[in-house]
Amino acid sequence: MKYKRSLLKLSGEALMGDNEFGLHSAKLKQYAVEVKNVIKMGGQVAIVIGGGNIFRGFSRIKEKIINRIEGDYMGMLATVINGIAFQSYLENVGVCAYIQTAIRMDQIAEPFGKNSAIRHLEKGRVVIFVAGIGNPYFTTDTAAVLRAIEIKADVLLKGTRVDGIYTTDPEKDKYAKKFKNISFEMAYQMRIKVMDQTAFILGNENNLPIIIFDINRKGNFQKVISGEKIGTLVSKTR
């Protein structure tokens, strides 16, 4: 196993499948099984989940009555809903999972603590980080990179519906070419949109490799932590 401890970033959109919003039961179960298989291999898995399937924040408020800060907090709460749902699906397939939140809500989740998170991981438990970093203006991509650094993860894996980074949008351009490896500097210069720029900068400064891969293809999670050339690797050097 190449990556013993990984942080998996799942977008809220990944959880809604083909639905227009909300949660897709089959997708939740599929991802839970993928995580279970990695745990069975001896891997340690932490997860950050977005909330775009429930509320995308400021960009969806056309009237601008709700300001950016309030909208971002609403988005953070949406990630809590997703975290609770995914915890239930993980436990349903026999995986012990704990939720840690950046905004205190003691009845449903532990407050975030890097030492307690690491202890959970070392005991074979999954840790789901919710509510971003607890502050507005920061995306869940940035939260994922920060949490990965704090728990000393070997890699950050962003599971998407596309199998990596391309020169252009492969869903719109059939001639788009895929990068197998790309540097943080190039990702920043090209304004790659699969993750936000702050996340790439933070990953670069802390030498955290990031792999963008197709989470919907069965077995890909196991393959990528085993070191197979799946998706696109973003790292210090190409």
Mean pLDDT: 93
Alpha-beta classification? alpha/beta
Compute the CA-based radius of gyration.
Answer: 17 Å
CATH class type: Alpha Beta
How many separate domains? 1
Q: How helix-rich are the residues, as a percent range? A: 25-40%
Share of residues in strands: 15-25%
* CA-based shape: globular
Quote the distance from N terminus to C terminus: 22 Å
CATH level-two architecture: 3-Layer(aba) Sandwich
What's the total number of strands?
11
Order of helices and strands: EHHEHEEHEHEEEEHHEHE
Output the keywords.
single chain; alpha/beta; 9-stranded mixed β-sheet; two-stranded antiparallel sheet; globular
What is the strand and helix layout of this fold?
Layout: E1 5-10, H1 12-16, H2 25-40, E2 44-49, H3 68-92, E3 97-101, E4 110-111, H4 114-122, E5 126-130, H5 140-150, E6 155-160, E7 165-166, E8 178-179, E9 181-183, H6 184-189, H7 197-205, E10 210-214, H8 220-225, E11 232-235
Parallel strand pairs: 1-2, 1-6, 2-5, 3-4, 3-5, 6-10, 9-11
Antiparallel strand pairs: 7-8, 10-11
